[in-house]
Amino acid sequence: MKQGALWFSGNEAIALGAHEAGVKVASGYPGTPSTEVMENLSRYEGVYTEWAPNEKVGLEVAIGASFAGVRAFATMKHVGLNVAADPLFTAAYTGVRGGLVILVSDDPEMHSSQNEQDSRNYAFAAKLPMLDPSDPAEAKEFIKLAFRISEEFDTPVLVRTTTRIAHVKGVIERGEMESSSVELTMEKDPQKLVMLPGHARMRRVVLEERMAKLRAYAETTECNRIEEGDRSRGFITSSVSYLYVKEAFPEASVLKLGMCWPLPEEKIRAFADSVDELIVVEELDPFLENHIKAMGIACKGQECVPAIGELNTAIVRTAIDPDSAPELLPAPQLPMRPPNMCAGCPHRGIFYNLSKMKVFVSGDIGCYTLGALPPLAAMDSCVCMGAAVTVAHGMSKALGEEGNGKLVSVIGDSTFIHSGITGLINSVYNGSSSLLMILDNRITAMTGQQNNPASGYNIKGEAANSIDLEQLCRAVGVTDISVVNPHEIPEARKVMKEALERDGVSVIIARAPCVLLPEMKRQTVVPYVNKLENCTGCRACVGLGCPAISWQPLTSEEAVARGYREKQKGYALINEVQCNGCGQCLTLCKFDAIVRKGE
Amino acid sequence: MTVTGNILFSGVGGQGILLASEITAYALLEAGYDAKKSEVHGMAQRGGSVTAQLRYGNKVYSPLIEPGKADLLVAFELMEAPRYLPYLHAGSRVIVNTQKILPPSVATGMTSYPEDLLAAVRACDIHVVEIDAFALAREAGEVKAANVVMVGALSHFLPVDAAACESIINTRVPERFREVNMKAFAAGRAAGA
Fold this sequence. Notes:
The complex is a heterodimer. By secondary structure, chain A is an alpha/beta fold. In chain A, the strands form six sheets. In chain A, strands 3-2-4-5-7-6-12 form a seven-stranded mixed β-sheet. In chain A, strands 14-15-16-18-17 form a five-stranded parallel β-sheet, sandwiched between helices. The longest helix of chain A is centred in the middle third of the chain and has 24 residues, at 197-220. By secondary structure, chain B is an alpha/beta fold. Chain B has one domain (3-192): Pyruvate-ferredoxin Oxidoreductase, domain 3 (3-Layer(aba) Sandwich). Chain B has seven helices and six strands; from the N terminus they run βαββββααβαααα. Strand 8 (168-173) of chain A pairs antiparallel with strand 2 (34-39) of chain B.
């Protein structure tokens, strides 16, 4: 590695790019695979960063900062851009003052997402330019380029990554610090900034004029480049797909589109004319392919390249040359190893209870979505951020009395603040009958422990206001509010059952910190251990699905040899190293077979 | 060929695969190679099967290893070795931690942990190096250093010398964990010989 070079992930590189671009205000909501951009940016001097309660808020904050004349940045994952779509479409009309760049990370293959959507469609729909880097080094350069384009063309600019850019590490180099020539301002310019219909109609024209200029720019920008090679096949590609093409067909001619919208029609046409066969290779939607075909240019695309999931070099090669498919060693049949809640996770206790109750559980997005998996299997729907509350309300209205006492929605603290609270307002206002459980583990956990408005700390770990969730629920009109300790399983179940017996909207806040919180990790864990002589093999604790507890099967001879009843099929064993000392298993054991170590 | 090596790390979320792959990557970068590494964060990390893919050579384009092209598999858990057989080829090498971490279906007694897992791997003409990384890490003073034990065993098969790996551990690992990680590396290196 060269002196001064850095081994950075795409997200670290993007944060450095934003820093070098002189970003002054940045706001985002965590979402895999975008989260580490804002986390890393928060460590640089000279930039204000924050976690917003949701992506719409984050983008609006960035729009405001741009209006005030600084370079501003918003980050989110693909589904977050749906939430931020409202300001996005109109920010295309207002344009910017300070450069405004929106980073959006797609997740082909859905490694950590509920759907597989292609954010390039937003660039088309909102009439915004989008840059589409291939690797960490390019991602950093493209962020800087995006800010220059934003100010030159008076437009927000989208930069898109995917998991295989965001979470890929590569070698990058530091660059020059840049700054904006735009000055701080509070200048009023209603025709540009107040999108009344009369003003918006004028900006609508500006928008088309700007797109025409951007189309011309796309023809000349260096980020759209032709790599001359064997002309029997020419590939048009962008994003990480470019890397797969380079490896699968190193000799071929390639038109690499670093800017995926608007498209350089003349360049594409010239490239198409220069090759015998034109092939478009892209992940997710046939975005380039459809637009190229609409230009009247013949090309091959998703009739051979898969539309679903991630690509890789082998998939690209085989799609185009089916005979090249390698013969692979067969995958043996093995037990699956799906993700699981951590040992000591407070969510587990609540889902254990829900699994024993005859209820429909409307779930939401977070670690607790894992409550849908066996052995707990206690989540019956999950659509998007905030939908736990609203789906339960919709079911309550559809089912009427039939649903009384049987509808539970489950949402995390961060997700509740993101977009659950508006649903709760609706439930109360429109007379729902359902129980809302807010699983308050004091952190945005799934994305790697980010602070949120309920955690009491800001992005830098400095003390900040902590929303009082009880008071918040009370303020929107909920009168039936209880707080439980999710680790105390039987007591929590009693409170849950009682709440379900009452009509109207009930809220139970299940409060216990995530075991991955730094302050929890620093605590000395006193694990629980077995008093094996007392275990009757009832399997109550095994049913928790805790990674620290395993079922040890016994033959009848082995059972007798251990002093158990002949019929006892096995016993439960706690792995002390994995145990986080939550004590949920203890609250379920009726036979005094579990004790705190040393007691 | 611009890429000279493909190393696949597999294991269970929480086993420290990322640190192990980082130490390996830095050792290769210091030796002058280009490299790319791909990982997956988020839901996949919560105790599920995880991988990190490290590729190095003169110039690396794709961050993903093609199925059938991994030269080395470093499996941090016994069952997570055969799971990735389709990534390997005859002549590949597997360094496997023989520790068993029970997946939920086994831990809850729905199914049992498969037997003879490594025989199936060896039957494919793949070299297997077995390491009891958990026990070696415990001897070194910290069970969590099992990941660095694995790097120690892996170091025999990297185009860099052991000192290069040790120097990375010395500069990249926080000071309070340095000694135990150096011991873990040495133990792994001895066991992998």
